[in-house]
């Protein structure tokens, strides 16, 4: 659907057009992922910005996008967005239920202009239900789903996993899966649809395996008592002599044996399946890790199959030899950032442009998408 004046970007979604109604959190991240994959993402910013407390030059969730400014509360604003929607494959919005409709850019209005449009809605609580109209943030969404309650030590309140589990895993990634599935359906049938991506739904869905284990009696409904939540002494983190940490995931027998050997506590071979001895094993493992620094232990386990790794900081991670060799992180415009993922053999992706500055691409988008009214008020 692109014009000759705008060459499709490399990536499997080259030629796909996306309109993103500016917001914060999971919506922008989902749009970034689509942009990383090659879609032509036009972010419709509002006058005055999004309210995110970050310099737009560093907001990498706006990389690989283009930005226009439209005041949806002005008389001509909704018409500009509808003109963009008429030329788009996907639209993403993250307002509370009913807000897009009140602004004149809801699903019915957009799809009246473009029946093939996939209209992606990103919210915390979903489009319906008793809490649909309530404010919320990541931590509240994962709290109600039971996901937050699984994370952390047994004798402490749940640990806060930044906003990764709710906003981005339960929200953005499910929205992307949803709009791409709906895009496939639209291309097969000629009919678009609305995708209701709620963080509560996605965060609950992430725990599917654990719900199965719980139903089978293989998971206790409390923190720090299970194989994968820190209750198991050979699946968790341990402090080192320098106050840093090592991560241990030696679940299988062969990995556990190598772990004990390299750690120097071979006498605990029989403790693996004996839960009554897990406390003793945990103390022994903790004592050994406290005897050396993190980097010393990293050297001990380097090249082994013990499934042990140093816990690195955000600043350290890009310099790890494996991540550096794979190019897991990249530098663009002076900002070190995660490279696009996943990877494709025939349609490679990359960081093409830095964060889109609000409104900076209005003339180009007006031309490429043939929406001249975007230029009103820009001269």
Write a brief structural summary:
The protein has 13 helices and eleven strands. By secondary structure, it is of the alpha/beta class.
Element-by-element helix/strand order: EHEEHEHHEHHEHHEEHHHEHEEH
Number of helices: 13
Helix content: 25-40%
What class, by secondary structure content?
alpha/beta
How far apart the termini lie comes to 27 Å
Shape: elongated
Low-confidence stretches: none
In words, what does this structure look like?
The protein has 379 residues and is α/β, with parallel strands linked by helices. It is 33% helix and 14% strand. It has 13 helices and eleven strands. Strands 3-2-1-4-5-6 form a six-stranded parallel sheet, with helices on both faces. Strands 7-8-9 form a three-stranded antiparallel sheet, covered by helices on one side. The mean pLDDT is 95.
Write the layout of secondary structure elements.
Elements: E1 17-21, H1 26-36, E2 40-45, E3 65-69, H2 77-86, E4 90-93, H3 99-103, H4 107-113, E5 118-123, H5 138-144, H6 164-189, E6 194-198, H7 199-206, H8 208-215, E7 235-239, E8 245-249, H9 253-263, H10 278-289, H11 294-301, E9 308-310, H12 321-326, E10 329-332, E11 335-338, H13 362-368
Parallel strand pairs: 1-2, 1-4, 2-3, 4-5, 5-6
Antiparallel strand pairs: 7-8, 8-9, 10-11
Helix pairs in contact: 1-6, 2-4, 5-6, 5-7, 6-7
């Amino acid at each position: 659907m692109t014009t000759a004046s705008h060459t499709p970007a490399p990536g499997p979604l080259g030629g796909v057009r996306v309109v993103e109604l500016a917001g914060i959190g999971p919506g922008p991240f989902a749009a970034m992922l689509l942009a990383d994959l090659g879609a032509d993402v036009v972010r419709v910013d509002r006058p005055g910005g999004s309210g995110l407390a970050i310099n737009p030059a560093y907001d990498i969730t706006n990389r690989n996008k283009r930005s226009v400014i439209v005041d949806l509360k002005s008389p001509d604003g909704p018409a500009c967005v509808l003109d963009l929607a008429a030329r788009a494959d996907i639209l993403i919005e993250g307002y509370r239920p009913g807000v897009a409709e009140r602004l004149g850019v809801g699903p019915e209005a957009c799809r009246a202009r473009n029946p093939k449009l996939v209209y992606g809605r990103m919210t915390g609580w979903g489009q319906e239900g008793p809490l649909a109209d309530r404010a919320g943030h990541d931590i509240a969404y994962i709290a109600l789903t039971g996901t937050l309650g699984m994370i952390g030590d047994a004798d402490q309140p749940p640990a806060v996993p930044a906003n990764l589990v709710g906003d981005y895993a339960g929200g953005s990634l499910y929205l992307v899966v949803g709009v791409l599935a709906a895009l496939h359906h639209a291309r097969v049938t000629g009919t678009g649809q609305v995708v209701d991506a709620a963080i509560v739904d996605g965060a609950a869905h992430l725990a599917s395996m654990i719900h199965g284990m719980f139903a089978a009696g293989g998971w206790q409904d409390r923190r720090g008592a299970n194989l994968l939540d820190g209750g198991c002494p050979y699946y968790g983190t341990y402090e080192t002599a320098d106050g840093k940490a090592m991560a241990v995931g030696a679940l299988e027998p062969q990995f556990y044996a190598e772990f004990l050997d390299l750690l120097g506590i071979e006498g605990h071979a029989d403790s693996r399946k004996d839960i009554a001895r897990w406390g003793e094993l945990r103390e022994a493992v903790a004592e050994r890790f406290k005897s050396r620094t993190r980097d010393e232990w990293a050297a001990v386990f380097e090249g082994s199959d013990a499934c042990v790794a140093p816990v690195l900081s955000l600043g350290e991670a890009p310099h790890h030899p494996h991540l550096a060799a794979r190019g897991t992180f990249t530098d663009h415009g002076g900002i070190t950032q995660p490279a696009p993922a996943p990877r494709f053999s025939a349609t490679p992706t990359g960081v093409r442009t830095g964060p889109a500055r609000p409104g900076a691409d209005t003339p180009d988008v007006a031309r490429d998408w043939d929406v001249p009214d975007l230029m009103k008020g820009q001269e």
